[in-house]
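Per reviewer request, we include the raw input and output of the structure prediction for the construct analysed in the revised manuscript.
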Amino acid sequence: MDLEYAKFILEKTKENYNLIAEEFSATRKEIWEELEFLFKDLKEGEKVLDLGCGNGRWYKVFKEKGVDYFGVDNSEKLIQIAKENFPEAKFFVGDALNLPFPENFFDKIYSIALLHHIPSEEFRIKVLNEAKRVLKKRGILVLTCWKIHRLREIFALLKYTLLKLIGKSKLDFKDVFLLWGKKTLRYYHCFSKRELEKLIKKAGFEILESGVVKNKRGNRKNYYLICKKPL
């Protein structure tokens, strides 16, 4: 993907989340129970970054574990909601491609449903490199990405693949736009598990565990990876 177009999508994604912040936050009030196992190894006092924290809903889990929590998102409106919901927490407006923290600062980073919103492999690698930079040696990165499985998602993937093949799309293969209500289109990259694992390794992380997790209804599926920064 042309990097200028990728920058445009990044800025548009930020604008979109500001536009739908209240509506989006209303659908993300509770944590997803199927992901709770990812937080079981948190230790009291650890410095932890919630990267792409949105409205801060995962803060409740981090608070229970007694960690030193930091939440970052590039949507000013979502951070405002997070601060209103959890005024005692440390939330910051920040860019995942240029994090406002020093090297070797965090013990763990959690990135829930962020990476699939980052256009182009170059920018996705940059996000992962930033995460690696601010992690301590042997620090842990836990991330999830959306796994497409519903018909509207599959049809969108077929549509944008066809447009790419006939030269009518500036997106990369496996990129789609999906409608949020009637307000806006949101960008996604439709990862496969193999592609995601390959990307993580390319960024220099060691994969400790990976898999697919779904909720009880089966209408929500995500890839998850638990990764370690090398010495």
